């Protein structure tokens, strides 16, 4: 606007707008932009009512009136969301059509920028070669703001980040954002301020238009993934224990430690509830301090398999040991198989606590209690007592009552898996 002005209103008087006055106005513009204000310049033109409007003729020789500043303040929760995203190894770039200093001021306010943050304008972006842009975006320690950008710039940034192997999420609300939203791994449109075009191009729509909701979604996604691993780990380690119990009995020439009916009672009666409870476990403390996982990483990696095989072996060895001890001391197969059944259930219940964390002890205070898991274990233990002590169920399952000493032995033996994991 200033470039189209020849005069300015100063102290109520129309004066010639010379280079010095322009410099003063631009300096004031920067001062306002540094306060996170979006600055507009206002001007008018004197013309007679009889003249026909012609844009090419009218938009010149304007008279400058002044500057007006507007602020679009960040939401209070954004600063905390940015802190969490940094801890989680997520890099956030500001790509805006606004003035660079305005964007920088806002970015500083929310903790996204520092005094060393680089501002790359649209004009500077046009001059960057592909290799230079790749180098800039490849530096994970560098803080960058892209200002006065065009839609194609955003698209180029997305393409470059994807070539660097990054998972890219793009936010946008306008028609111009649609190509970048479509190209990103996850396009996130605004539900309130977003246009229909941007929402159609996106994979996800933010109902509240808040950046912090994206971070909450990432946290929830990590929680779901870790809970999935807990569920899989619990099922595999417990079933490995059952398999080893059966096969060890065959190899040693023993009668079957567990009958088919008892195995079904374990799998359908007592295993299911703790497994489901692990699937809705509370998030592990520090879940957002870990770096993003490799998208090519498999759940069944060597460490994961070795861990459930190790605990499965402990489970199997403990159950077989109790079975052999009972068989020799009591001389009763029903008594021995009942004890094997009960200790298998108890050891699996205790193993559910092992499944909650790969790195933290179950005794650490930061391990938040999972009331669903406690409830599931309580129900499973009650069912086990009923299976063993109720005469009708004894006849159906082929079990027999245990005395206090035998209950104490199986209860104590169940903790071997916890000791081994700890």
Per-chain topology:
Blueprint lengths: L4 E6 L2 E4 L2 H15 L3 E8 L10 H4 L3 E10 L6 H10 L6 E2 L4 H10 L8 E4 H6 L2 H9 L5 E4 L3 H13 L5 E4 L5 H6 L2 E5 L5 H6 L2 E3 L4 H41 L8 H11 L1 H8 L22 H29 L2 H22 L16 H19 L1 H7 L6 H10 L2 H6 L1
Parallel strand pairs: 1-4, 5-7, 6-7, 8-9, 9-10
Antiparallel strand pairs: 1-2, 3-4
Helix pairs in contact: 3-10, 10-12, 10-13, 10-14, 11-14, 12-15, 13-14, 14-15, 14-17, 15-16
Keywords:
single chain, 422 residues, 55% helix
Would you kindly provide a brief summary of this structure?
The chain has helices at residues 19-33, 55-58, 78-87, 100-109, 122-127, 130-138, 151-163, 178-183, 196-201, 211-251, 260-270, 272-279, 302-330, 333-354, 371-389, 391-397, 404-413, 416-421; strands at 5-10, 13-16, 37-44, 62-71, 94-95, 118-121, 144-147, 169-172, 186-190, 204-206.
Let me know the largest β-sheet: 4 strands, mixed
Q: Which sequence of SSEs, written as H and E, runs from N to C?
A: EEHEHEHEHEHHEHEHEHEHHHHHHHHH
Q: Radius of gyration from the CA trace?
A: 34 Å
Number of strands: 10
> Low-confidence parts lasting 5 or more residues at pLDDT below 50?
none
Shape: rod-shaped
User: In angstroms, what separates the terminal alpha carbons?
Assistant: 70 Å
| Average pLDDT rating | 89
What is the topology, as strand order, of the major beta sheet? 2-1-4-3
Structural class of the helices, strands and pairings?
A: alpha/beta
The helix fraction, in percent, is 40-55%
The amount of beta strand, in percent, is 5-15%
Number of helices: 18
């Amino acid at each position: 606007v200033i470039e189209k002005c020849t005069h300015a209103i100063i102290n109520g008087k129309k004066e010639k707008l010379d280079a010095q006055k322009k410099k003063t106005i631009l300096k004031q513009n920067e001062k306002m932009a540094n306060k996170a204000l979006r600055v507009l310049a206002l001007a008018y033109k004197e013309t007679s009512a009889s003249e026909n409007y012609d844009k090419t003729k009218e938009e010149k020789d304007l008279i400058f009136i002044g500057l007006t500043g507007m602020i679009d303040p960040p939401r209070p929760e954004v600063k905390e969301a940015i802190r969490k995203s940094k801890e989680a190894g997520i890099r956030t770039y500001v790509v805006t059509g606004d003035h660079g200093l305005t964007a920088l001021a806002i970015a500083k306010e929310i903790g996204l920028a520092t005094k060393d943050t680089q501002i790359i304008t649209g004009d500077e972006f046009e001059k960057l070669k592909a290799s230079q842009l790749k180098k800039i975006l490849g530096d994970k320690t560098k803080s960058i703001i892209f200002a006065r950008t065009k839609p194609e710039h955003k698209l180029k940034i997305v393409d470059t980040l994807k070539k660097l192997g990054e998972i890219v999420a793009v936010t946008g609300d306008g028609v111009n954002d649609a190509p970048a939203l479509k190209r990103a791994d996850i396009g996130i449109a605004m539900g309130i301020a977003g246009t229909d075009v941007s929402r159609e191009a996106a994979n996800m729509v933010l109902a509240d238009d808040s950046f912090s909701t994206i971070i909450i979604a990432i946290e929830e996604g990590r929680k779901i993934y870790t809970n999935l691993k807990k569920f899989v780990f619990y099922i595999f380690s417990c079933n490995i224990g059952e398999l080893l119990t059966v096969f060890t009995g065959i190899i040693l020439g023993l009668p079957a430690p567990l009958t088919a009916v008892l195995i079904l009672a374990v799998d359908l009666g007592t295993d299911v509830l703790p497994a489901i409870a692990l699937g809705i476990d509370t998030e592990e403390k520090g879940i957002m301090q870990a770096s993003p996982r490799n998208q090519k990483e498999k759940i069944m990696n060597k460490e994961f398999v070795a861990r459930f095989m190790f605990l499965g072996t402990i489970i199997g060895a403990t159950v077989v040991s109790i079975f052999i001890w009972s068989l020799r001391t009591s001389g009763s197969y029903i008594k021995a198989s009942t004890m094997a059944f009960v200790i298998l259930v108890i050891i699996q219940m205790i193993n559910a606590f092992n499944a909650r964390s790969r790195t933290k002890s179950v005794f650490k205070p930061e391990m938040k209690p999972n009331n669903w898991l406690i409830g599931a274990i309580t129900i499973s233990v009650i069912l086990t007592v009923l299976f063993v002590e109720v005469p009708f169920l004894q006849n159906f399952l082929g079990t027999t009552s245990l005395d206090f000493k035998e209950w104490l032995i199986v209860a104590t033996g169940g903790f071997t898996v916890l000791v081994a994991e700890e």
